[in-house]
Amino acid sequence: MNKKVLIEIIFLIAVFALSFRLRTYKIDNPVADWHSWRQADTAAVARNFAKEEFNLLYPKAHNFFKQSPGDLANPNRYFLNEFPFYNAVVALVYKNFSINEAYARLVSVFFSSLTAVFLYLLVKRYSSKLTAGLSALFFAIIPYNIYYGRVIMPDPTFIFFSVLSLYLVTLWVEKESWLWALLSGLSLGLGMLVKPYAIFLGLPILYLVLRKWSFKAIIKPQVYLVGLISLAMLGAWRWHINQYPEGMFGSEWLINATDIRFKGAFFRWIIFDRMNRLIFATGGFVLFWLGVIAKRSKKEGLFFLMWLLSVFAYISYFAMGNVTHDYYQMPIVPIGAVLMAKGFVFLLKKGEGLVARLLNISLALSFVLLMLAFGWYEVRGFFNINHPEIVAAGKQIDKLTPQDAKVIAPYDRDPAFLYQTNRNGWSGLRNMEELEEYMADGATHYVSVKTDDLTNTIAENCQVLEKTEQYLIADLRECHFEQ
Question: Which of 173, 231, 272, 278 is most buried, by CB atoms within 10 Å?
């Protein structure tokens, strides 16, 4: 084997191992850390695939709660949003080992770490091996990406398919092979199924296609194959889930609720708070912009800038979603890592003489250290379990109630509490009228981690199975409410 190839393989194994190891921090956390509301539904679908029917067309969470825009009843507990590719992989792991949230996190860790490898392979096609290596390394160690590279969410898998798709498209355009065209279409289609936001990758892909064939691309059958496969996969899934609106949750607000797009608050949240403070953590943000202005090679052309522009187009279109949720900015991490690497190399090559070179190297390393220090400061709290009482109460429900119990676990409609009970039920309860409705629908138990008038009323009129300083569990089959 060629010595250079061997060194390259060893480097990629090392980057994968480093990325994997960093993401195992608190890998056994219960589903109660940052953004547990989103993780809980994803984890519930995977667990139900393993425990109940494994049917990719009809993923089910634990919640009977009305979540659709029209508040439609959802007796089947459908959770129809993205195609459950990630959930299915987790369920297969569960079936072969056991149901354990750490395994679900490890699936995300695997995809995120593999992304670093393919990011290297992609960048190497357009830039130097040094830039490619630094891109993979930065992707692996950005603190924000460490946390979101081990969450029980489909997003790490989506990022993997995004980078893989751009790499396969690159190979297809270079080789003009039907096989690479087919693989590109399938990868892009899977990316769109996991998260439809992958459709924005059409911008850098279109750039590569036009750069290769110009307007002759309109007579290239392979171009139509890639587009047809990917869009047909997404279209078929969207058509299917639209037949079951009760299983879909309202998402129109993600686009531009409160009319925030391009307002001062929008730029403040996205650029200052998320990109500068949270994701690239000041030091990386400086390298990021240096990478934007750094000299571009002929082979690179505008490819990286088109990729960056596609991410900004996605952020701008889903303006409210990106302002509301910090994990929505995950697509900027791979291209951001590339631009950080270009900025780092830019500094390394600047300066005349030994002293100037050493100063620039020190400056570049200082920016990386600042990113690591400030980035970790910002995300370290994400790993915390701020409400351990929902975990404790959930374990007791699982211990005290039959498997077919239907539980009301009010937590401001957040399914994280209900998930801890390992039972189907409802994640919200506003008043007695709703309680009566849920009881008519078969609710058997009530668990609460807060004391309010409704909880006190239930405690006074129903059989209390257990009451502690943290929670109350009541049997709703033994209630005597005054008329």
Answer: 173
Closest to 74 measured CA to CA, from 245, 250, 251: 245
What is the phi/psi pair of residue 386, to 5°? -80, -20
Q: What is the mean pLDDT of residues 350-360?
A: 83
**Position 129: which residue type?**
K
pLDDT tens-place string over residues 148-204: 999 999 999 999 999 999 999 999 999 999 999 999 999 999 999 999 999 999 999
Whether residue 136 contacts residue 116, with contact meaning beta carbons closer than 8 Å, is answered with: yes
pLDDT at 334: 98
Q: Which two tokens stand for residue 284?
A: 């990386």
CB 407 within 8 A of CB 317: no
- Residue 311: φ, ψ to 5°: -70, -40
Whose tokens are 């498209």? That residue is 169
Q: In what order do the strands lie in the sheet with 462-467?
A: 424-426, 406-408, 445-448, 472-479, 462-467
CATH code that applies to domain 388-479: 3.40.190
Q: Which amino acid is at 325?
A: H
CB atoms within 10 A of CB 312: 15
List Cβ neighbours of 370 (8 Å cut-off, separation of 6 or more). 281, 282, 283, 284
The amino acid that residue 251 corresponds to is S
pLDDT beyond 70 at 1: no
Q: Which of 68, 65, 66, 103 is nearest to 87 (CA)?
A: 103
- Spatial neighbors of 133 by CB under 8 A, at least 6 apart, are 11, 15, 120, 341
What is the model's pLDDT at position 483? 59
Q: Report the distance separating Cα 189 and Cα 349, nearest Å.
A: 40
- Cβ contact 256:319 at 8 Å: yes
What are the helix (H) ranges across 245-403?
253-256, 264-267, 283-293, 303-317, 319-324, 332-349, 354-379, 388-400
DSSP alpha helix (H) spans, 67-197: 85-96, 101-124, 129-141, 143-148, 155-175, 178-194
Q: How many residues are given for the chain?
A: 483
How do residues 405-431 score in pLDDT, each as one tens digit? Answer: 999 999 988 999 999 999 999 999 988
What are the beta bridge partners of residue 60? 78
Give residues with Cβ within 8 angstroms of 280, minimum separation 6. Answer: 142, 287, 288, 336, 340, 371, 375
Q: What are phi and psi of 434, to 5 degrees?
A: -65, -40
Helix 303-317 and helix 202-213: axis angle, to 10°? Answer: 150
